[in-house]
Amino acid sequence: MSSPSPPRRRAAVSTNVRESPSSFVGRAGDLSAIKARFDEGARLVTVLSPGGMGKTRAATRFARLHGEGFAAHGGGGAWFCDLTDAGGVDALCGVVAAELGVPLERSADERAIIADVGRAIARKKRVLLVLDNLEHLAREAARVVRAWMILAPDARFLATSRAVLGVPGEHLVHLEPLSLPRPGQSAAEIMATESVDLFVRRAREVRPGFDPSAGEIEVLADVVRATDGIPLAIELAAARVAVLTLEQIERRLATPLDLLVRRDDTGKHASMRRVIVDSFAQLDEVMRRRLAASSVFRGGFTLEAAESVLDGPQKGVLATLDALVARSLVRAREAPGELRFSCFEAIRELAAEELAALPGARAEVAARHARYYAAFGAALAGEAATAGGGALRARLGRELDNLIAAHAQAIEEAARARGRGRRAGLVARPRARAGAPRAGPARPRPARARRGPRRRVGGGQRLAAPGLRRGPGGAREHAARAR
């Protein structure tokens, strides 16, 4: 009788990464970009984006796909560390140590704690550490991760943050919105886009059998366009199909922060407002005021415009824009011959609320905006009409929404001036003496020319300016004031 075989040793756990039970949509290009950075030798890759873009989902997906590779040949596997509630260096180190199963000795020496965890990471050899949600302690995290990269040269770090860490050797992967339907696409092509796919999947979680009709597909396309392709915004909008039609959702997305709220949820992703407020809270007073002022722009803006509009012609606007871009609150995109800045609509809406709350600030900023674009349009209009002025006409086209907004502001200011004049005239007019003869009957006023139909300009608003086409980004609030 043969002796019993010795019991098998249980394989050491090489990961704690767990994916969300909901389906994962898109991001193939982003996952490939992360892998490419590591394959090229990067030791720290930071997935960067505003809140709600899906950084955590992308990072955990990457760790699940490649965890076995990090565990092979004696490697340490892949480990996820949620640092949302970490309030400092000690807490950061404590979370990572706990996930790796490393006991930490009590010590008042911060450097000793960092070194202890760094040596524990080094013992894992080739290991992937996912450091999730670092934006609120980016400065402290930069110091800690830099020390760990020295102590554990075989380790790889995948961070998610709304702000750049600034560690030497940090490689960035900017997480972009999900793909949106393009004008002119067929119904099948619209349904295949990432943003629509995500909306339909999440809608079916709250309304099984949700299947937009042929007539609703274009409305669905408008709904996801209104979310800017931000996954959290899409999911929050999709949850509303339980009580709203697609047409109702589209109308209510004119003010997205009021609609995009998760029922019975108090977490950090309970609403788009909560996500953005958390980012605003990390700004200093100057950055916050200038971000609020940037809400007057439509369709993006240039550095020159920002320097003239945000605080008037003052120094420091470039540094502020640099900081806001690094914190994922402002986007920088190349255009022919210039770099343009813009905000996602939900961020712009909250910035506009903050500007309106500052006494007198909105009128001052809007007046600077109107003056700048009046001068800009006048300077370029003559040259753009000449032969060979195609580049200038393209530049004017990129500023169309700002020009419309400036026009609306001028109409609004003129109406206020007329109102002030009428009030002043009433005060200055002498009262008629008793018994004085009355003036003759007033001369009939000529009939006003009937205005033609107003052109729709995004969000249900209209502009009394036939022939002007709406550019990207819309001019909702300013256009409405032109009525």
Structure description:
This protein has 483 residues and is an alpha/beta fold. The protein folds into three domains: 28-174, 3-Layer(aba) Sandwich (Rossmann fold), CATH 3.40.50.300; 187-271; 283-400, Arc Repressor Mutant, subunit A (Orthogonal Bundle), CATH 1.10.10.10. Helix content is 48%, strand content 9%. It has helices spanning 28-39, 55-71, 89-100, 110-123, 138-151, 187-192, 194-206, 217-226, 231-238, 246-252, 256-259, 272-280, 285-293, 303-309, 317-326, 345-357, 361-384, 390-398, 400-428, 476-480, and strands at 44-48, 77-82, 127-132, 156-161, 170-174, 331-335, 338-342, 455-456, 462-463. The relative contact order is 0.08. Mean pLDDT is 83; it is low at 1-11 and 432-483.
Overview features:
five-stranded parallel beta sheet; alpha/beta; two-stranded antiparallel ribbon; 483 residues; disordered N terminus; Rossmann fold; globular; Arc Repressor Mutant, subunit A; 20 helices
- Counting DSSP H or I runs of 4 or more residues, the number of helices is 20
Give the strand line-up of the largest sheet: 2-3-4-1-5
Supply the helix-strand structural class: alpha/beta
What count of structural domains? Answer: 3
CATH A-level architecture of the largest domain: 3-Layer(aba) Sandwich
Q: Could you tell me how far the N terminus lies from the C terminus, measured between alpha carbons in angstroms?
A: 98 Å
The average pLDDT is: 83
Q: Major sheet: size, sense and barrel closure?
A: 5 strands, parallel
Number of strands: 9
For this structure, the CATH topology of the largest domain is Rossmann fold
**How do the SSEs run, as a string of H and E?**
HEHEHHEHEEHHHHHHHHHHEEHHHHEEH
- Unreliable runs, pLDDT <50, ≥5 residues? 1-11, 432-483
Beta fraction of the residues?
Answer: 5-15%
What is the CATH top level name of the largest domain?
A: Alpha Beta
**CATH H level of the largest domain: which superfamily?**
P-loop containing nucleotide triphosphate hydrolases
Using only CA atoms, what is the Rg? 29 Å
- The share of residues in helices is 40-55%
Broad shape: globular
